[in-house]
Structure formats: C-alpha cells, structure tokens
Amino acid sequence: MGWRTVAIGAAVIAAAAATTALAITRASPSIGFFMLDMAINYTVILIVAFGYIALMYLVAFLTRGRERSAAFLGGTRAGVLFLALALPTYIFIGTAFRHVPPFSGSERGMDSYFVYVAATRVALVAVYALGVLLAIVRSRVLGAQWPVALAPALPAVGFIVLTLPLAEFANACYIGVSFLLPGNC
C-alpha cells in the first residue's frame, strides 16, 4: 500500500464520517454533533500525522540515502499512523462509556466514576505504549538490527509529545479530567 493510497483512504474516511454525522444530526442533533466533533478530531490528528511523517521523510532524505532509512521510516510511519487513528478512537470510546442518559436509572455514582477514570488512564497509556512498540516491531520486520530498530521509537514519542495538548484537552472535555497536563475544557 503506497503513501498516496493511505492519504486518499484517510480523506475518504474523514469525509464519510462527516457526511454520516451531518445526516444523523437531522434525526438526533446531540448524537450528530458528537459524531461531527469526533470526525473533526480524526481529521485534525490525521493532518498533523501526515505532516509529521512528511517531516520525517524530509529529514531522512537530507541525512542519508533511502536504502538505509527504509526500516526507520517504515517503523515511524506505522507507529505514528497507529497513534493518529488510536487516539481519536480512544477519545470516542472513552466518551461513549462516560455518557449515561439522564434519568435512565443507571446514573454513574462517584465510585464507578473513579474506576472509569482509572480505566481511561490505563487505556491511554496502553495506546501510547502500543504505538511505540508498533514502531519498533515494524522497523525490525523491515530488517533493522536491534539497536537500530529502536530508533523509530523516538519519532513515535515525539508525535505523542506533539499531540499531548490535544489529547489532554480532549480528556478534560470528554472524560472529565486531564491526566498529564493541567487543563480544562
């Protein structure tokens, strides 16, 4: 699968999500606007991811030849794209678990809220760890030896740091509390 195919696929997914959200907005405005908000989250983070990956390609091109950096770029691309898709999915799922319809008889008590917050923190750390691990494993699969196979972990961690303010804003708005950085909605 080429770079162009991935870019076109991401654009089609974002457009389909936005179109679906607009159609649902007419039937149920609160659900429709929530879906539109999630589509915007996916779009923004994918744009950041593609720009970040393009920057990594430029750095690799300027420093060394393509044959030496294929494993590095493959690992970086896999880790960053995983994180770009997993972070908005984490936000979507975390928000869906938090939402309890009012007066449904199943309002969330404070005990279950603290369990929910702890579970979302574990899920966020798991998403970050899987993104870094995927970058390393993909680099290794593409033929990098062990010390060099760890190199794509650095750009993956860089992408996490770059998108951390967005993730923390989403945590504060949708989950109800920010985890690492002070913030509010």
- Structure summary, number of beta strands: 0
The SSE order reads HHHHHH
What does the main sheet amount to? none
* Portion of residues within helices: over 70%
Shape: globular
Structural category:
mainly alpha
Molecular structure report:
The chain has 185 residues and is an all-alpha fold. Helix content is 82%, strand content 0%. The chain contains 6 helices and no strands. The protein has helices at residues 3-27, 29-63, 66-98, 110-141, 146-149, 153-175. The N and C termini lie far apart (39 Å).
Please supply descriptive tags for the structure shown above.
globular; 185 residues; 6 helices
What's the gist of this structure?
The protein is mainly α and 185 residues long. The protein is 82% helix and 0% strand.
